[in-house]
Design a protein that fits this description.
This protein is of the alpha/beta class. It has two domains: 264 residues, TIM Barrel; 95 residues, no CATH class. The chain is 42% helix and 19% strand. The strands form four sheets. Strands 4-15-14-13-12-11-7-6-5 form a nine-stranded parallel beta sheet. A three-stranded antiparallel beta sheet has the order 1-2-3. α11 runs antiparallel to α14. It is globular and about 60 Å long. The model has no long low-confidence stretch (mean pLDDT 95).
Length: 377
């Protein structure tokens, strides 16, 4: 029997939180990192290989899946879990972030957004109600409200307008979600407000008053400096209910994750580990390695003999360098897998440190290891 959505907070250590999300398709230990399966796949990787890295939940993309193969088609084929052979939890974004990138191809008004498909040029309408419907057809465990995401920096009057519109869309998203009547699934609200702290806090308070099973901080990592992002997170999370999960959308680097956990964030997603892997960058315990660099051409040592993932212990840096330079697809596959495994190892270390009450020690040691760098020999 599947379990309905819930969140249990087990430990706190300063601002850091250790908990568990329960969904109809399984449990997720938090803080958690979600690999991005944009078009029903984590690019280049089999679902079982993604699971082997330690991932417990994936992110699916409403915008791309609604355009191809279509939400109704996925539903007819048994839903996204069955379609992509991923039996564990899935969170779907609302499509708002992708629509932001279509500023030259879209028309936005109170009702929603009309835009041209990047695939065939057809006109498509996306509203809060349609976004929720699509995510329900996909069978998402965690549905995101439809929102407007602005690139930063932005004029304050634009941030006010987008934040207030997102709040009205939040109410419509909740009404549509409740009308769907899906047992066990959850709907998250999304905090907007750009880099304006009072706007962020107002958005958080008003979303909490509407009432959601979880809350996301959206509209960050879209052009602002890291210190602005972290300050925004730090000033926003106290306005969110402590008994609900907090999700920082689209973030980010290992350092971003470590620092955001310290500020009360429970869930993350980002394309960075796989996108960087496809371009020859490996994430390791001692910082990133650019395997395009000629210094690795004769290096017979593996990336990390202490890694929990066999690929990082098995393949030499010289071989990975060769694959990257030769543009062999195996290089992208191996490095994407290694990077996802590193992110999951980082999350396990964070969770263990919070549970043991030593998160600050873990945070300090991890940052020192990154600064020290990985010895070549």
């Amino acid at each position: 029997m599947t379990e309905p959505f819930s969140f249990r907070l087990h430990n706190t250590d300063g601002g850091a939180r250790r908990g568990e999300v329960v969904t109809p398709h399984g449990r997720v230990q938090t803080p958690a990192f979600m690999p991005v399966g944009t078009q029903g796949t984590v690019k280049g990787l089999k679902p079982e290989d993604v699971r082997d890295t330690g991932a417990e939940i994936l992110l699916g993309n409403t915008y791309h899946l609604m355009l191809r193969p279509g939400a109704e088609q996925v539903a007819a084929l048994g839903g996204l879990h069955r379609f992509m052979n991923w039996p564990a939890p899935i969170l779907t974004d609302s499509g708002g972030f992708q629509v932001m990138s279509l500023s030259q191809l879209r028309k936005l008004d109170e009702n929603g957004v009309t835009f041209r498909s990047h695939i065939d040029g057809a006109m498509v309408e996306l509203t809060p109600e349609r976004s929720v419907e699509i995510q329900s057809l996909l069978g998402s465990d965690i549905v995101m409200q439809f929102d407007e995401c602005l690139k930063l920096p932005a004029p304050r009057d634009e941030m006010v307008r987008a934040m207030e519109l997102s709040l009205r869309w939040a109410e419509r998203s909740k009404a549509a979600f409740e009308k769907q009547g899906r047992l066990g699934a959850a709907l998250f609200g999304i905090v907007q407000g750009g880099d304006d702290i009072p706007l962020r806090q107002r958005s958080a308070r008003e979303l909490a008053a509407i009432g959601f099973q979880g809350y996301a901080v959206g509209g960050l990592a879209v052009g602002e400096p890291q210190d602005i992002m972290l300050r925004t997170v730090e000033e926003t999370t106290p306005a969110l209910p402590a008994d609900r999960p907090r999700y920082l959308m689209g973030v980010g680097t290992p350092e971003d994750i470590l620092e955001s956990v310290a500020r009360g964030i429970d869930m993350f997603d980002c394309v960075m580990p796989t996108r960087n892997g496809r371009h020859g960058l490996a994430f390791t315990r001692f910082g990133p390695l650019n395997l395009k660099n000629a210094r690795f051409a004769d290096d017979e040592t593996p990336l990390d003999l202490q890694s929990e993932h066999p690929a990082a212990r098995t393949y030499s840096r010289a071989y990975l360098h060769h694959l990257v330079k030769a543009q062999e697809m195996l290089g992208a596959i191996l490095l994407s897998t290694i990077n996802l495994a590193y992110y999951q190892t980082l999350m396990r270390g964070i969770r263990a440190a919070i549970a043991a009450g030593r998160f600050e020690d873990f945070r300090r040691q991890t940052r020192e290891d990154w600064r020290r760098g990985l010895p070549v020999r």
